[in-house]
Amino acid sequence: MIPRRLTRFKPTPPAAAQSPALVTDPAEAALQLIIARHNTSPRRLIEPGPNEAELQALWEAAAAAPDHGQLTPWRFVCVPAHRRSDLGDAFAQALVERDPGASLEQIEAARDKANRAPLLILAVADLRPAEPDIAAAERLVSLGCAIQNLLLTAQAMGYGSGLTSGQAMGSKALRRLFGLVDGEEAICFINVGTVSREKPPRTRPEPTRFVRSL
Ligand SMILES: Cc1cc2nc3c(=O)[nH]c(=O)nc-3n(C[C@H](O)[C@H](O)[C@H](O)COP(=O)(O)O)c2cc1C
């Protein structure tokens, strides 16, 4: 069942998210949505991406993340189509920063990573001193929850998503482009779009691997 708030969208669920029968139990629907989410490579995310109303719903979902101290210790920066070449330049510079001997082919491959998913968002953690003094780990958990809220909402709308990071995240070039200040960290890019080709999702760990009783 699609939550009532989201019925204004016209979701076209990817094959993995389609269920043969309508799920009417909200707990079961939530579980099925969560289980169906999986990482899709930005190479397989094509147009169309979320429209403006859908994008606003993604921000609303992010804003619902748990947030100890209510610091909003994170921010998101969209990279619109007309700024992708600037991001490509930053990826290229980041590569040269860490490997001055990188080949032209490697530099072009780095640059090309900026041109994939229709919706591309940088997730930034704010770890600057603040009142109340909430630990960095807690702030990162809050950002992780905000990202997951966003991913699940995109999934409910019928889009695929994937996270990307890598060594460019800490580079001077990327920090400069996004105007990051001391204490802000670029954590990952969020890629959202229509899935061109589904891949089987990974096998998830059994709860016995990560649950114990004291
Ligand atoms: C902060 C963060 C950064 C990530 N960066 C990458 C990345 O650079 N490349 C990649 O292929 N996957 C990346 N991922 C996605 C994980 O590889 C993916 O979530 C994992 O393989 C589990 O698969 P699933 O999401 O389909 O369950 C990242 C995930 C997180 C949480």
UniProtKB/TrEMBL annotation:
Which UniProt keywords are given for this protein, alphabetically ordered? Flavoprotein, FMN, NAD, NADP, Oxidoreductase
For activity, the cofactor(s) needed are: FMN
Location of the region described as Disordered in the Swiss-Prot/TrEMBL record: 1-21
Q: Which InterPro entries match?
A: NAD(P)H_nitroreductase, Nitroreductase, Nitroreductase-like, YdjA-like
Q: Where is the Nitroreductase domain?
A: 48-193
Q: Could you give the cofactor binding note from the entry? A: Binds 1 FMN per subunit.
Protein name (Swiss-Prot/TrEMBL): Putative NAD(P)H nitroreductase
